[in-house]
TrEMBL record:
This is Two component transcriptional regulator, AraC family. It holds the Pfam family HTH_18. The keyword Glycoprotein does not apply. One of its GO terms (biological process) is phosphorelay signal transduction system. Keywords: DNA-binding, Phosphoprotein, Transcription, Transcription regulation. Residues 4-117 form the Response regulatory domain. Residues 153-251 form the HTH araC/xylS-type domain. The modification 4-aspartylphosphate is found at D56. GO terms for molecular function: DNA-binding transcription factor activity; sequence-specific DNA binding. InterPro entries: CheY-like_superfamily, Homeodomain-like_sf, HTH_AraC, HTH_AraC-typ_CS, Sig_transdc_resp-reg_receiver, Tscrpt_reg_AraC-type_HTH. The keyword Ion transport does not apply. The lineage of its organism: Bacteria, Pseudomonadati, Spirochaetota, Spirochaetia, Spirochaetales. It comes from Parasphaerochaeta coccoides (strain ATCC BAA-1237 / DSM 17374 / SPN1) (Sphaerochaeta coccoides).
Length: 256
């Protein structure tokens, strides 16, 4: 399958070079849009919901990291003409995949995209694993409610109590009193899935419960389950369950 990409870059020459020289087809990627400032970049990301965002940091309107923090993005690559450790620290908190300094060495972006595509493919395998344990009448994703270890259990409790809010690994790590890298490693070891996958699966299980109430529309269900947009919710729902929210509702109405 092809993964979709959006580029946000205010330097016109750099943007044109990225579009023209990156071997999108060879990397199993599809470039679906570009923007030249942070505000239009945010709108584009929310509208297109790409798998990957490539962005500069210093952008007109709002900087690239603020743009990412306001958008439904799981995988991003930062391009920057300088090294700023405060920006790098914030990028790490946002889960940015890599931080590349301009001018990039030949093949550097291509190599980074290759590694990111590999990661995305592994995640797709995880989604498939979730789907295999489900049957037609039960789409709930099986998740451990406890891991038997203090740090992962604290993170699970944090998710259960705060899933409706815009939370992520940094907030859970602060709650558990450990570093993000420590939480990430111990959580995966204890639960066999990473923190973000658990958070999204927990939110989806809540959405599945809510969708059995015909009085709630998809937008309300997405918001009450902690998803930033209905489109992002629908995209993840299909990845994890193999069905769109509408297909699930139609099936439920036929069963009842």
């Amino acid at each position: 399958m092809k993964y979709t990409v959006v580029i946000v870059e205010d330097e016109k020459y750099t943007l044109e070079a990225l579009v023209r020289t990156t071997p999108w087809e060879q990397l199993d990627l599809e470039l679906i849009g570009t923007a030249e400032d942070g505000m239009s970049g945010e709108e584009l990301i929310k509208d297109m919901e790409p798998d990957i965002v490539i962005t500069d940091i210093r952008l007109p309107g709002q900087d690239g990291l603020d743009m990412l923090s306001h958008s439904p993005v799981n995988h991003a690559i930062i391009l920057s003409g300088y090294i700023d450790y405060a920006y790098m620290k914030k990028a790490i908190r946002l889960g940015v995949f890599d931080y590349l300094q301009k001018p990039m060495e030949e093949g550097q972006l291509e190599s980074t995209l290759t590694e990111l595509v590999k990661k995305l493919t592994e995640e797709e395998s995880e989604f498939a694993r979730f789907r295999k344990v489900q049957d037609a009448s039960n789409l709930f994703i099986a998740l451990p409610s406890a891991a038997g270890k203090h740090v992962p259990d604290a993170a699970i409790r944090f998710i259960e109590e705060n899933y409706q809010s815009p939370i992520g690994l940094p907030e859970a790590a602060r709650f558990a009193g450990v570093t993000e890298s420590h939480l990430s490693r111990t959580f995966k070891e204890a639960t066999d899935i990473n923190f973000l996958q658990y958070l999204n699966a927990f939110r989806l299980n809540n959405a599945i419960r809510l969708m059995r109430n015909p009085g709630k529309n998809i937008g309300e269900i997405a918001s009450e389950s902690g998803f930033p947009t209905p489109g992002y919710f629908a995209k993840l729902f299909k990845k994890y369950t193999g069905k769109t929210p509408s297909q699930f509702r139609d099936e439920q109405s036929q069963i009842s």
